[in-house]
Write a structure and sequence with these properties.
There is one protein chain. This protein has helices at about 1-5, 30-80, 105, 115-120, 135-140, 250-255, 265-280, 365-375; strands at about 85-90, 100, 160, 165-170, 170-175, 225-230, 245, 290, 305-310, 325, 340, 350-355, 360. With about 375 residues, the protein is of the alpha+beta class. It has one domain (about 45-375). The longest helix is centred in the N-terminal third of the chain and has 52 residues, at about 30-80. The termini are far apart.
Length: about 375
């Protein structure tokens, strides 16, 4: 028994310490490597995701332009002509003058499945911003954003500036061709000429309407632009020159109300002056120099609002402005000389042609080719690979 106790250590059994086990985990270096790999994968996948989203937005935009093309032809079938670009109406009953023009967009509403909005419009009164009877009559329609007029790639359309009583909700414009300007300035120095595009003008004083039909498009409906897209504005403060309108450029005055095709040197000089003027006055808050009222409303038939001309190449980086004119700017819908086609689609913009088809035109298109696509009866021969 004594020996047994001695063997057992006096009745006490001492257990040896168990060896410590190393817990599984990442070292700091391994963790950093994993984070770096994840960052690389995100960097590779993010552009692909953004590209897929832009492709979806572009498809949506193309569909909107196709709907406009269909509405245009349905209107033509019912009326016998394309809608007029500017249909003038008074802001106050009984006034000898004092009005604004309704747009071609407003006239085709019922052919865009927007009969409710169309029936709510009182065409006896003008689309108005100022607090007059026309504004109170049509203000509900003024603030009605319609998806068919909004390109999802724009990023900020529609946006409402309540202090200006505007809702920037029009991303598509009708083409007046190479016609530089329909109205000299906001003081009603009227200088109406025949539009070279498919949308005609209404004289605000004489009310001599000019409308065109398919038969008058002798260049061919597949060779004549009907609509394009443009970025909407941001009000008095300019944050993006492509969304801005510039006024007070003397070189533009010499070419307003004239066909750009017959004044190639003068127009090229004026465009260069506009580009320089835009760069020099970027981010200005002086509304007599520059403002951003592009696409202020689909209701108003003004160049720079729901109309454009095929003078400056679409989405041009050289001519990075929405519009440019010779007269000083004021806070109005947008009376402009050169009105560009702008978009957030890379390298160009989408266009609806007079046959209803939609095509993408690159920013690198030759000026003369672009001008030719804008005219309905210029007699130009355009090669199929010219743009």
């Amino acid at each position: 028994m004594r020996l047994l106790r001695r063997f057992l250590g006096g009745g006490r059994i001492e257990l040896g310490r168990q060896p410590l086990r190393r817990r599984a985990g990442f070292t700091l270096i391994e963790l950093l490597v994993v984070i770096a790999i994840i960052a690389v994968l995100i960097g590779l996948l993010l552009p692909a995701v953004q590209s897929a989203r832009e492709a979806a937005r572009r498809i949506h935009c193309v569909n909107n332009l196709k709907q406009l093309g269909l509405a245009l032809h349905n209107y033509h079938s019912a009326i016998g002509s394309f809608p007029i670009a500017q249909s003038w109406a008074k802001t106050t009953p009984g006034a000898s003058y004092g009005g604004n023009p309704w747009s071609a967009h407003a006239q085709v509403l019922s052919y865009l499945e927007q009969s409710t909005i169309y029936n709510a419009v009182n065409f006896s009164f003008a689309p108005a911003q100022a607090l007059n009877q026309a504004y109170y009559t049509n203000s509900t329609v003024l603030y009605a954003p319609l998806n068919v007029f909004i390109c999802p790639s724009d990023g900020i359309s529609p946006t409402t500036l309540s202090e200006l009583r505007m809702d920037f909700n029009c991303n598509y414009s009708g083409s007046t061709g190479t016609t530089v300007e329909a109205i000299g300035n906001h003081f009603l120095t009227v200088s109406i000429q025949d539009s070279t595009g498919i949308f005609g003008f209404d004289n605000p004083i004489l009310h001599g309407s000019r409308v065109y039909n398919v038969a008058s498009v002798t260049d061919g409906t597949s060779n004549t632009i009907a609509y394009s897209e443009h970025l909407v504005g941001t009000g008095p403060t300019i944050t993006d020159t492509r969304r801005a309108s510039w006024g007070g450029v003397p070189e533009v005055t010499a070419v307003v109300s004239l066909d750009a095709r017959s004044q190639y040197p003068q127009v090229s000089q004026a465009l260069a002056a506009c580009a320089a003027y835009a760069r020099a006055n970027a981010r200005t808050t002086d509304t007599t120099v520059g403002a951003s009222y592009s696409g202020a409303t689909w209701m108003a038939g003004y160049l720079g609002t729901s109309l454009f001309n095929t003078i400056t190449p679409p989405n041009s980086t050289q001519y990075a402005f929405n519009s440019c004119q010779g007269d000083p700017l004021v806070t109005v819908w947008g009376l402009s000389g050169f009105v560009n086609s702008t978009s957030n689609h890379p390298a160009g913009a989408n266009f609806t042609f007079a046959d209803g088809s939609v095509r993408f035109i690159k920013s690198t298109i030759d000026l003369r080719t672009y001008w030719a696509l804008g005219t309905r009866a210029g007699g130009e021969v355009i090669s199929s690979d010219a743009y």
